[in-house]
Q: What sequence folds into this?
């Protein structure tokens, strides 16, 4: 029992322990709120988590009345793990005795609590309330202990090149004053903190140069002289204070260390992000602040994140899974336990779903840095190549708590099974760890290889990163490729020949606007995903060729993991804004491929459950092909529109004949982007739709393949063609195509039908 639980919640720890059966919790909103306000640990924790979910932007029904008790009651359900030594050993020094599920009947929301205990003095569970403010001594002492332990014991967590200096740093004199320094004038290197934060909409001090055309007065000399800390936004002041408390005198802040109105300086510095973050001593993350004016610990509630000590007084157990089950004696492993009750999912709530982690630039910042200190709404978190810890679990979180965000850690550190977080399983993404030479500085890598990943796994890992990255937001849409350039450089080093960014491979650019040339055939197979009420779209101005996932603003995912190509690449090129930076901004591109091209096509409302639309070939298409296509159901994923509402549009570049570069690359930045909803496409006679087949995947589980057909998936791209004369028939060979979607045909494809579809060499921009 506990005095920090209401009578309803306390009832779950006394008398008969009923497992695997729903038990009524609070039957009204008023009762639940009253218990939360009076300090019940469970009710208060649930209330805080609900508040965090609302603040993180989860949708709420506009018609929902929060005070309506109808069908709003909550339920308890107890679950117990198998009490075996093997099960307990998975969690290291921690033992899980069971978990308690609370289900909200109206929203179907489920919140979990775990009963955890430890038998090791080296793995304490926080039992004393630390200071309530970020700079309190107890809070900073926890952070210092994490940093000290990591520096002393974790070989793989240090900077790749300790001699590296960013171009500029902020030198911290004291709590009240800092100044900008240029490191080329410095004799020695500096240990520095890299600061990850959200810019947001608030105005913050920026490093600027003189710009007479725009009437901008530069401040470089002024910032070199002195900066009053009080003039900086809240999150900057916090970062400076924490850095100083941890013993650092130098900090890198993007807005103050990159000249914000210099395209040349911005391009050069953004290309150095790999080095800036990989060589920082610590990445300090303002996770809770949606913009620079916000502070951390905004909802720090010690009654929530400090685990609650529980002394159950169960007298027996009843398994609700057995309809005729009878109460039995309590298992011996539940006798006299004194565990802690901890809310599950704090890492997801405080870090993964934080405002900072939804910022696109932070994806590579989090991957490239070796150590992170997260300043969240409720507490500090530590993450390095060896340890994930929080103030609640300062020696490291139980592995059972890591399952939910394991996929994210896989993306950041390695492709390993859950539960493997030793240094020997980390950092495989770092090019210096695969025994290669650091080509940017021409000397051997610091560490020997720990694990070589297969080509398929590296492809899968890049696809995971692209999927995660595409869900994140950008303040400036044209940053799409630059904000991923550090990771592109890292993958280039790891993967070696054929993936170089230093120049051209035998076939041309090895990195094609987010797609690697050696994997181009699979790299073209991506599709847009649903994201609530968000409309996926291709932004204007232009930022990537239509065949690249980077052309779309919105979440995307790889459409196939393995496939046989149905086409051949004739040529592929991209044109960069600055050819010195092969992973930077793109202003044009073209893809020539040869495959079977079907069309023109018409669209109408129809039987497709996937898109709600049916495609039909025009009369000039062979009648046998037309009959087969009309009889089939195609899954079409359009690149743009409201995916969840099945309301789609296409956009296209117009007036293309005047935008061809001297080497044949079409410059998208010189064209005008136009948009039309699919339902209005019939009114646009200049826009014609086509399908080009690119891959096929045979069903591995089919035991019978008929001579006239193949049981397989056929995939391809939906293309549009903008013609200059509305009455043209067939394919206008003088006009290029633009991608507008992705399709899949599941089922038997007859070879005779495919052979009737003509092969053509086409250009896609």
A:
């Amino acid at each position: 029992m506990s005095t920090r639980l209401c009578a309803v919640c306390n009832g779950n720890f006394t008398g008969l322990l009923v497992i695997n059966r729903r038990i009524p919790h609070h039957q009204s909103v008023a009762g639940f709120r009253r218990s939360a306000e009076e300090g019940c640990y469970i009710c208060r924790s649930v209330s805080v988590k609900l508040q965090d979910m609302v603040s993180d932007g989860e949708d709420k029904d506009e018609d929902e009345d929060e005070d309506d008790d109808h069908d709003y009651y909550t339920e308890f359900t107890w679950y117990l793990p198998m009490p075996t030594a093997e099960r307990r050993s998975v969690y290291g020094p921690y033992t899980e005795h069971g978990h308690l599920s609370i289900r909200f009947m109206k929203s179907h929301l489920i919140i979990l609590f775990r009963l955890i205990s430890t038998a090791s003095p080296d793995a304490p569970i926080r039992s004393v309330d630390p200071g309530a403010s970020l700079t309190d001594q107890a809070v900073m002492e926890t952070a210092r202990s994490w940093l000290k332990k990591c520096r002393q014991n974790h070989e793989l967590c240090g900077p790749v090149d300790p001699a590296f200096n960013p171009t500029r740093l902020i030198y911290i004199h004291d709590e009240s004053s800092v100044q900008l320094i240029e490191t080329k004038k410095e004799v020695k290197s500096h240990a520095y903190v890299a600061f990850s934060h959200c810019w947001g909409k608030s105005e913050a001090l920026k490093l600027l140069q003189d710009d007479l055309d725009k009437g901008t007065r530069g401040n470089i000399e002024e910032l070199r002289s002195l900066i009053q800390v009080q003039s900086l936004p809240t999150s900057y002041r916090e970062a400076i204070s924490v850095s100083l408390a941890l013993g650092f005198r130098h900090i890198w802040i993007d807005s103050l260390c990159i000249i914000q109105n210099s395209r040349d300086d911005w391009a050069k510095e953004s290309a150095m992000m790999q080095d800036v973050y990989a060589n920082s001593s610590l990445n300090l993350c303002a996770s809770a602040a949606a913009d620079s004016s916000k502070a951390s610990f905004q909802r720090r509630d010690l009654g929530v994140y400090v685990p609650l000590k529980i002394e159950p007084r169960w007298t027996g157990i009843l398994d609700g899974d057995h309809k005729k089950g009878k109460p039995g004696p309590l298992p011996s492993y539940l006798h006299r336990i004194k565990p802690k009750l901890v809310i599950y999912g704090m890492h997801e709530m405080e870090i993964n779903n934080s405002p900072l982690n939804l910022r696109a630039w932070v994806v590579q910042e989090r991957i490239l840095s070796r150590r992170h200190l997260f300043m969240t709404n409720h507490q500090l978190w530590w993450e390095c190549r060896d340890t994930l810890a929080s103030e609640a679990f300062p020696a490291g979180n139980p592995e059972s708590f890591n399952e939910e965000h394991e996929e994210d850690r896989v993306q950041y550190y390695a492709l390993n099974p859950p539960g493997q977080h030793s240094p020997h399983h980390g950092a495989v993404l770092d090019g210096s760890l695969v025994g290669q030479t650091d080509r940017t500085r021409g000397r051997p890598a610091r560490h020997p290889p720990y694990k070589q990943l297969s080509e398929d796994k590296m492809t899968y890992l890049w696809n995971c990163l692209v999927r995660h990255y595409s869900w994140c937001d950008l303040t400036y849409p044209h940053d799409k490729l630059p904000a991923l350039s550090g990771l592109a450089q890292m993958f280039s080093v790891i993967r070696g020949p054929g993936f170089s960014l230093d120049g051209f491979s035998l076939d041309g650019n090895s990195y094609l606007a987010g797609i690697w040339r050696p994997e181009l055939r699979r790299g073209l197979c991506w599709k847009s995903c649903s994201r609530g009420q968000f409309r996926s779209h291709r932004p204007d101005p232009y930022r990537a060729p239509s065949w690249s996932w980077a052309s779309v603003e919105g979440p995307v995912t790889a459409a196939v993991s393995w496939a046989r190509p149905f086409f051949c690449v004739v040529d592929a090129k991209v044109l960069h804004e600055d050819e010195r930076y092969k992973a930077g901004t793109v202003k044009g591109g073209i893809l020539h491929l040869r495959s079977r091209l079907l069309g023109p096509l018409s669209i109408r409302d129809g039987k497709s459950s996937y898109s709600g639309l049916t495609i039909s070939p025009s009369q000039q298409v062979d009648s046998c092909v037309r009959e087969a296509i009309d009889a089939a159901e195609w899954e079409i994923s359009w690149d743009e529109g409201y995916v969840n509402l099945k309301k789609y549009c296409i956009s296209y570049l117009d007036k293309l004949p005047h935008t061809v570069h001297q080497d044949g690359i079409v410059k998208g930045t010189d064209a005008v982007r136009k948009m039309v909803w699919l339902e209005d496409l019939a009114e646009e006679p200049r826009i014609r739709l086509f399908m080009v087949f690119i891959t096929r995947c045979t069903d591995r589980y089919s035991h019978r393949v008929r001579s006239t057909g193949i049981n397989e998936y056929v995939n391809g791209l939906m293309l549009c063609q903008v013609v200059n004369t509305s009455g043209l028939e067939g394919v206008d060979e003088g006009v290029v195509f633009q991608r507008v979607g992705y399709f899949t045909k599941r089922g038997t494809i007859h070879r005779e039908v495919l052979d009737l579809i003509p092969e053509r060499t086409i250009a896609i921009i």
Notes: The mean pLDDT is 79. The chain has three domains: 7-54+71-126+300-346, 137-299+347-401, 455-764.
